[in-house]
Amino acid sequence: MTKIKICGLKRQEDIAYANACLPDFAGFIVNVEKSRRSLTPQAVRELCGKLNARIAKVGVFVNEPLDTLTALKDCFDYIQVHGQEDNAYILEAKKQCGLPVIQALRISRLKDFSCLEKSAADFLLLDSDAGSGHTFDWNLIPHITKNCRQPVFLAGGLNCGNLAQALESVRPYAADISSGAETDGNKDFAKMKELVAITRRYSHE
Question: Which of 21, 42, 74, 124 satisfies CB 3.0 to 4.6 Å to 193 for a cystine?
């Protein structure tokens, strides 16, 4: 069954919305100053504690010291790294946290896809660029997936208008959506509900 991750939850309202529509994953961005969705570790603990246990919690980090990950490992079910983390970092994160790791890769920055087969991550997340809100050429997916063994999260510009097409064209393990679930910079319950519904319909067709 295709899954859906709503990323960038930052408010109490976002938690309430997620608990009502039950995406498979919820992402929390930690200590990323340039992101308007970034949270402090204290805020992460507070929000994660209120999320429905049926929703897997994903901690999203960018070049963060491993100490931060280990300090928050009890909050999360998955770790997502979105910077220049190498295999040594990923393997140590898995060892210290005891959690599966999702490695995010910006397709626009990859010179070739052969590096994907060497990734130590448990999952790959393919994005156009971090938080850009733009899609990338989905025709690249067959060339990408033949070079990786991991299940793939598809991100980058997904929204209510193109999610069904993306799921049909790419057939990812999961869709990852942030800005496409927002209105005026905040999570929109109607959009979140529709995105989850589209994913569920696709999974049962």
Answer: 21
